[in-house]
Each structure stands twice: as structure tokens, then as C-alpha cells.
Specification:
The structure is a homodimer. By secondary structure, chain A is of the alpha+beta class. Chain A has 11 helices and 14 strands.
Chain lengths: ~375, ~375
């Protein structure tokens, strides 16, 4: 799969991280791209989020560059807004574009001043490093506690490419694990259509991992469509491909949960509505006791039905079937006969599927992704800041 | 502090637990006691909860005996209701009281049939063991993953005693950690007054540890007032003492969190209402990242303000002060100067206080208790069922 046309990527070490690892990145579209973005709904929104929203409105969704730093969230800082604005200006000056076409984003520790001089000082070398082949280097540079870089690619017909990268670790309640996501395409797509597609796709991707509701101060996902291919796609086909890219990225976040060893897919069927199915799936996905059971390869359906029971959704427990890896462990709310040793072996796999089915109740379905929950999580988060 | 008059306690090993440790307990009031109870709001309520509700209604809040087993939750079982009913009947027959004056409760694994014969078979030896001094033995016998038994005592004036016992481990979201609580008093208190007091007291005790909202299938707290002292208390004074007993029990649950080393008290001030203060406090208390930071003695106020930010309560981050152990680490939403090493030492204490203050906004206050979150939690919950 080839990268979309008309984008260049660069990353350098600007001294923001304590360790010498690239921490300042730039993604540039040769021509301003139609853009859509979703942001954290946290009351405490970091300075770059506030500036990104402002720029996106002022530019009417036309974006030339994404400026990304790791190592400092630029959140709850005295100089935050000024830093996000002035560093965006430095990018605009270097690329000779309006400042509102620059979207800043940051990830890292909060409450520590971010030194704008480190970013503006590195700007010449950053711009000089811009390269059409720099995609993977940027995907590497935006990682924080991530163990692996996360990218996804798709094509639509012959002429259109989509390439996405993301960072984030799917934790129990990943409040501080900032999620950043950047998707580039060379398709010709109007900004309004792009916004509508992103809104729909985010619901079944980033908002269907156990991240939702516990958003960090810095979360942002941006999609750029610069039209460099010259091809206007069938919008339904394009949306399908875009959704698959976003789902792949979201699943990679869930799988790379801090300390996690397994990707867990939770399918809910038979709820009265999509909203109720989503609420049930989220409650199961968020349960630390479900997640620790998965880590222990324990088909503990009692924890599943209990988590569903406190989700706020009313259902009849005696109509519930629960399956692990396709094996029914609970039928009509009661223990089913199954080969415990055989199922335990199946649960040692790196991907685990849980199905929660309410029989005869309705057509509401939802799919969520999460990870298991191991002792490694505690080690990572007990000493992250210092 | 002496035990309330007119109660006897017994516990035996009935073979319900796999390990030979007392698992069947009985608390009997010599005369039927006025009673009040609160139950889990989980959609999936265990059979004993359903029978307890039914008996409490049928007896109009008059209770002679509490039958308690550990080792099996009698939840999501084919025979659950029949078992809870028939074992209650066996108690009623042995004590010659109406069956509706017997309140059953259970804790342990769910989805496994509970053998009524084990309980009815042990009934003669259980009743024979009834003893006014058996209080502590029952407090020991109801423990599951608890590391320590939990009891609290109070007196009101000269004549009235209150004694409570509880079990439960305050986990992140302690969905399966059934909370059982039993409080006995010899005061003369009408059932209606007792119900109103319990409802108020539970809000600032059991519902103010990070348990709330994630209730297990088996949670129940019962208060019995048998009037054996012959003393009618000043109701305000009695309620204060009852509330203190319930708060002490709830704090002991929070402190004995699975794998926990520290009790964390979260005080929220300046919210627009009590409801908003409670929501902020709960969001902070439930954050695994806050809890892991406390385990690591890290005054990571970024995680506090982030958890407050996604609580759903609107507030101005620039009016927030955050204090750890009385030391301001965040003033008006920004990092404050403090001696990091000195504060880290203070955070090594077994009790940690976090204050979250919104300046000038309102009079809403709330206090929550939780625990730190250590690797031990994962070890315990990764292998609990099997």
C-alpha cells in the first residue's frame, strides 16, 4: 500500500523529552487540505486543543500543517496558550501559510511549562527534514508509553490512498493517556462530508475502545484530505475505508494497553437500542475485574453479568447468554456445561472474544475493544511522572 | 465498649468454602428487632437479596435472625431462590420464629449452585453455638478477600450500645467484592426512624467509598434495633453515633482494598452543590491513575484535575487549588512551588489526604474514601475464581 500523495513528514529531537528521542514532529500537506477533527470533551482542555479548535474554525477546515510534540502536554501551564500560538506561528512563517492552517497538538506530562524556544529553535532543522518518506519516523516519534508504533493503511479504488498513525495506550480509564490520531488521504473530499464521516466513524472506532468517557486533556484525531490524487471517490466506499483505518488504529491502542497482553473484543447483541448495547459493552469493557480475569485466562462470566448489571441498562438476567471464544459459559443466566481446561487454553490466545447476548429483547448491537489488565499496568503508572 | 444487649452470635464450618474456615454464621436477636436495610441496585440481584427484600416487607421490618454464608454468592443459580427460602425456613424452625423474620445474605463465587443440605445439615450445631460473646468470631467468618476483620462500636449516653461488623474490599470498581454490613443496637428506635437514618447515613459512609455505582450482586447492609436496653435515645445523638459506626466500617473497607497499602481521603470544596461535589470526589476516587500515583507517593495533581475534568461537572480549571497532605501542589490551576522530596516523604504515610478546592464557586462539599492501587490488586483478582 502506498502513502497518499502530497504529504511530507519530519521529526527531530528538540530537547522536550528528558531522554534523547525525537519529540517534535511536523506533517505538511503540499496544498492546504480539507480537514476534520474531534477533540477531548474534558473540561480541562490543554492549550494546543484550544488553539487547534480556534484555528480549525478560522481556516474553515483548511489545514496545511500538523505540529506535534511529545514529552509535555502543555496543559495547566501559565504560558500554554502563548506557547501553542507562537509555535504555530513559527510553522506558518517557515511554510509561508496562514497561522490558522497550522494545528498544534501535544502529549506528555501536564502542569510543567513548555519552552517555546525549544520548538522555534528546532524549526529550521524540522522543516529541512521534511520528507515524503518520513511517515513511519513520525509514527515512532509521537509514542509515549506506547510499546509499538501504530499505523494503518487503505486504498480506495486505484487512485486513492489513506494512511493513519496514532498513539495512546488503552488503559482501564485512560485519563492521562492522551490519544493523538492523524489520518492523511489524497482523495478529493469536501470538508463538510469529511466532518460527517469522521463523526460517524469515531463512534465505532476511538469511542468504542474503553477510552470513552474518560478523556484526557489533550485528545485529538484529525483527518486531512488534500485531493492530490485528483480522484473523487464514491463517498460510501471512501467512508468504509476511512472507518476501517480508524478502527484498526483504535484496536491497536486497545491492544497496546499499558501492561496488556491481550486484545479483548466485546460484542453485545439483543439490547433494546444501540445506545443500550453500547452502555452494556462499555460497562463490561471498563470492568477491571473482567480485565484481570482475562489476564488470568479465567472465563469468569459472573463478573461479566455483574458489570452488565450495574451498567444502568435494565434487562432480564434469565435471558442472557455469555460466550468466551465462541464457547457458551452462561445460558439463560445460569452456568452452562463446558470443558473448563479446554476453554482456559483458548483464553491463553492473544485475542479474546466475549459475547453478551440478550435473547429476544431487541436489535441493539455494539462492539467494544479493550485489553487485559496485568501487574505491568501498575508498574508503569505508579512511576510515570517522575 | 460493651456489646449491645440481647444478641447472640454463632459461626461454624458447613463445607461451603473449599478451605476449612467458618463459612456459615447466624446473628439472633432475643426479641424481634426493628430493622432497616439497603440492598444492591444491580439489575442482577442474588437470590438471598431477593428473599431478604421479600422477608423485610412481609415482616414489616421486624427481624429475629440474620443468616450469612461465605464461599458462595448463591447468584445466577438454578436453585437460588429455593435455597435462600429453605435455609431461611430451617432457621425459623430452629428459632421458632416466622420465616419472614429471617434475613439471608451470601458472599462468594457466583454461578455455582449452593447446596442447601450443607446449611440445613449444619443448623443444629450452628444454633447450639449461639453465644452473646460470638460477635468477633462472626466478623472473622464473613471475610472473603478481606485481610482483616472490620468492626466498629459506639455508645449513646450510658445505656445504649451499637456494634457493627462488615466485610468487603474497596477496589477500583469493586463489582464483585460483595459488601455485607450488620449493625446491632439495643436502643429503642422505631423502624421508620431507623430506615430514614440508615438512608441518610449510608450516603456519607458506604456510598462515599469508591464502591458506589459499581455494586455487586449481593450487597446488603442491615441495622437491627431490638430495644433490649429499654432506653429511648435522643434521635439526633443516636443518628450521629450510627453514622460514625457506618463511616468507620466503610473506611475500613476502603483501607482494606485488595492489595492496598494506603487509605486515601478525598475532600472536595466549593462545588455548586453537594451533588456536583460528590460527582467530582467520586471521579477522582475512581481514577486508577490517581490511585497508582498514590501507591508511588507521587503528588501527580495533573491526574487529579484530569479526573475532575471528565467527571461531567463544569468548573473553571483556573480557580482550582489541589493539596496533598495539606501542601498546595496546584494553585489556580497551575503548578505551585513545593518541596517535592519533603512531600514525597509525607505521601509514604498510610493515610493520604487530597483536597480539591474550587475557589468562590459554591458551598458544595463532599468527602470520599478510597485506597491506593498496587500490583497486589492484579494478583488477587487475576486468580480469584479458580
Amino acid at each position: 500500500l502506498k502513502l497518499p500523495l502530497g504529504y511530507r513528514y519530519a521529526t527531530v529531537y528538540a530537547g522536550i523529552r528528558k531522554v534523547e528521542k525525537n519529540d517534535l514532529s511536523l506533517i505538511v500537506s503540499d496544498r492546504p487540505a480539507n480537514a476534520a477533527a474531534v477533540y477531548t470533551s474534558n473540561v480541562v482542555a490543554a492549550a494546543p486543543i484550544q488553539i487547534a479548535r480556534k484555528h480549525m474554525t478560522a481556516s474553515r477546515g483548511l489545514v496545511k500543517a500538523l505540529l506535534i510534540n511529545a514529552g509535555n502536554a502543555n496543559c495547566a501551564t501559565r504560558t500554554g496558550l502563548a506557547v501553542a500560538a507562537s509555535t504555530s506561528k513559527a510553522v506558518a512563517a517557515a511554510l509561508a501559510c496562514p497561522v490558522e492552517q497550522v494545528i498544534p497538538s501535544s502529549t506528555g506530562v501536564i502542569g510543567v511549562e513548555l519552552d517555546a524556544a525549544k520548538i522555534t529553535g528546532a524549526m529550521p532543522s524540522l522543516v529541512a527534514a521534511l520528507d515524503a518518506d518520513g511517515f513511519q519516523r513520525v509514527a515512532d516519534a509521537i509514542m509515549t508509553t506506547d510499546l509499538v508504533p501504530k499505523t494503518a493503511f487503505a486504498s480506495v479504488g486505484k487512485g486513492i490512498s489513506i494512511a493513519g498513525m496514532t498513539k495512546g495506550s488503552g488503559m482501564i480509564h485512560p485519563n492521562m493517556a492522551t490519544t493523538l490520531g492523524y489520518v492523511m488521504t489524497d482523495a478529493v473530499v469536501p470538508a463538510a462530508a469529511l466532518r460527517a464521516m469522521l463523526r460517524r466513524a469515531i463512534g465505532v472506532s476511538y469511542n468504542s475502545i474503553s477510552v470513552d468517557g474518560d478523556q484526557s486533556t489533550n485528545d485529538i484525531v484529525v483527518v486531512l484530505a488534500n485531493g492530490a490524487s485528483g480522484v473523487k471517490p464514491d463517498l460510501a466506499k471512501f467512508e468504509k475505508a476511512l472507518t476501517e483505518v480508524l478502527q484498526s488504529l483504535a484496536k491497536q491502542i486497545a491492544k497496546d494497553g499499558e501492561g496488556a497482553k491481550k486484545l479483548v473484543t466485546i460484542d453485545v447483541k439483543g439490547a433494546k437500542s444501540t445506545a443500550e448495547a453500547t452502555r452494556l459493552a462499555r460497562s463490561i469493557a471498563n470492568s477491571p475485574l473482567v480485565k484481570t480475569a482475562i489476564a488470568g485466562a479465567d472465563p469468569n462470566w459472573g463478573r461479566i453479568i455483574c458489570a452488565a448489571g450495574y451498567s444502568g441498562v435494565k434487562f432480564d438476567p434469565l435471558k442472557v447468554d455469555i460466550l468466551f471464544q465462541g464457547v457458551a459459559v452462561c445460558k439463560s443466566g445460569l452456568a452452562a456445561d463446558f470443558d473448563e481446561d479446554a476453554l482456559k487454553s483458548k483464553l491463553d490466545a492473544s485475542e479474546v472474544e466475549i459475547r453478551f447476548v440478550i435473547k429476544g429483547a431487541g436489535k441493539g448491537v455494539a462492539r467494544f475493544w479493550t485489553c487485559d489488565f496485568t501487574e505491568g499496568y501498575i508498574r508503569i503508572n505508579g512511576s510515570y511522572r517522575t
